[in-house]
């Protein structure tokens, strides 16, 4: 009789747990975003003679070195958009976009990353200090801040350095709109960077 009561009680507890599990909300689907571009693809215009540029992956904080889409909703609190991520870590996305822009610019014989086992005439080393959306007066603004150093590929002597800061307002608060603003800001960074590299 006691065993029967214990079994009945255990069964009731088990059924209760199962029913509780069934009413838990389903996991929110995770959306992965590519870094968009507003610039038309450039035709390859590599000169017959010209320097080879190696663009190294920017160094960054641990938070930025992830696929999370960083956001500062207020004050000094930094977070990330729920249910959304980049297709790769932010520094890698930025490096690849800059290589793409340099390749098509016609300023270099070739533009490569540190993964290519090739010799380069110039190295672009950088620190990614900001790659996030910041809320300003209730509206998100994408901020990209990059410290760049151009170094000789052989001696590693620094030839030039500059800080770039891009601020691109988003058209709205939706994640898709913020992602588009990231693309616009990155395109503007690429344009300014190429202008700087073209200086004698």
UniProtKB/TrEMBL annotation:
Pfam families: ABC_trans_aux. This is Membrane integrity-associated transporter subunit PqiC. InterPro entries: ABC_trans_aux. It comes from the Bacteria. Residues 33-192 form the ABC-type transport auxiliary lipoprotein component domain. PROSITE patterns: PROKAR_LIPOPROTEIN (PS51257).
